[in-house]
Amino acid sequence: MNNLISGVTLLLFCYALLADEAVQPLTLIEVQSSALRAFPGLLSIEQKQRIAAGEYQSAEGGFDTLLKSKNRLSIAGIYENEMYDTSLEQPTRFWGSTFFGGWRRGTGDFPVYEGKSKTDESGEVRLGVNVPLLRNREIDSRRAQLQQAELGKLIASHDYDQALLDARRIASLRYWDWVLAGQRLKIAERLLQIAEQRAIGIRERAAVGDIPDFEVLDNQRAILERRERRVAAQRLLEQKAIQLSLYWRDTERQPQLPGIELLPAEFPEQEPALDINLQQALVTARNQRPELKRLQVQKQQTEIKLAYQKNQALPGVDVSVMVAQDFGNNIKDVNRDELYLGLNVDIPLQRRIAGGQAQVASANLQRLKWDRQLLEDRINNEIKDTLSAIKAARKRVKLSQQQWQAAKKLEQGEQSRFELGESTLLFVNLREIANGDAAMTAAEAQANLFKAHASYQAALGTPIEMNTFSAE
């Protein structure tokens, strides 16, 4: 029976071991892919692209064909008649020209001053075009709105690219903070385990008079202190897990807390490959950063507005041509073939509206110029700062590893001296705490190195291929 119970226990232990091995640590790429696929902030920014597409479609509506219909019946009075008029207008992008055509029919009795309203029995068909010669020729409100709306789609795209970079960077920072918190808890648990395992041996040595009784009390104090450190480390890990859950989401796009079982055992042994070249990095950032691209498109939008306002300050001179022909039984008092030429002129005398708006556009161009210079300076500083951080973090990793190795040897040596009665528990505790602090310093240096890489990629504006993070 005992053998059976032992066999079952062994089987359950092996099953649990295999289950633990099946749990793979949470990786950075999993967090990034989840953030780029389901982070609400990105989904919100994504709607700006739909808004821009809707605004572009609305601007295209300025060139929609317009159908008009006017109908009038005079059913009482001296003159009884019927009037039907249907027309089509088609604005175009060709020099701001507008083509029009229509059909009208007027029958019955008309007074002399409305004689033109009368048509032949089948009505009159007309075709014509209106062409601006100065104002609205090179650019008009329809074409200006359409061009700005098209550029607005580019702005929305650059805003989305910027949001992607920010989400990837912050998700990376939260991930490495979480891994670092896991290392802190691991170190705290190791220190507590050492003190707890040592408690029995110390009590036995004190009982036989090998060490003073206060060493037992000192070890108990160390246990309590290290339990407090573990509680603080557990709280920090929970906090970092909660922060990480904002970016690590399930298939329903809901935050999910990463458990302790998903923590990587250590930081990666190798940092991402990086060829540090300051000048090349600055050029790359200026070519790739979405903010600079956005400013460039905003500049183009403002230039369009300036060109439009300057054009609106010109006199309005429009030429129109129309031909018309009646069809029917050739009523005597109706013109069958007609050709009309028109010239319409309007001149704004003060031109304050166009002048004021042109001044606004010019000032905005200068503002965008200085904004771009400031942004370029900030990007240059970001590149320099992140490269400096990477260099410093590399040095800190090497030095902290060396410091940690030295602290390990000192702890082992002090422990050996204590066992031989040549040291006290006070010095052993100090060596153990120093070893734990050195281990934590080494972990922080590694975390800072990987966080610096994440910031550097964001500073470069490295594009993100969204198909890499597409949902299954």
Q: Would you give an account of this structure?
A:
- This protein has 2 domains: 24-58 and 154-302 and 367-469, Outer membrane efflux proteins (OEP) (Up-down Bundle), CATH 1.20.1600.10; 64-142 and 313-357, no CATH class.
- It has 9 helices and 6 strands, in the order H-H-H-E-E-E-E-H-H-H-H-E-E-H-H.
- The protein has helices at 2-22, 28-38, 40-60, 141-207, 214-245, 278-288, 290-312, 352-419, 425-460, and strands at 66-74, 81-91, 98-108, 124-132, 316-326, 337-346.
Strand order of the largest sheet: 1-2-3-4-5-6
Do you know the CATH architecture of the largest domain? Answer: Up-down Bundle
**Runs with pLDDT <50, length 5+?**
1-20, 466-472
Q: Can you say what the CATH homologous superfamily of the largest domain is? A: Outer membrane efflux proteins (OEP)
The residue-averaged pLDDT reads 86
Q: In total, how many beta strands?
A: 6
Helical content band: 55-70%
Shape: elongated
* CATH level-1 class of the largest domain: Mainly Alpha
Query: How big a fraction of the residues is strand?
Result: 5-15%
Secondary-structure-derived class: alpha+beta
The number of helical runs is 9
Distance between the first and last residues' Cα: 50 Å
How many independent structural domains? 2
What CATH calls the topology of the largest domain is Outer membrane efflux proteins (OEP)
**Whole-number radius of gyration?**
40 Å
Largest sheet at a glance? 6 strands, antiparallel
Q: What's the helix-strand series?
A: HHHEEEEHHHHEEHH
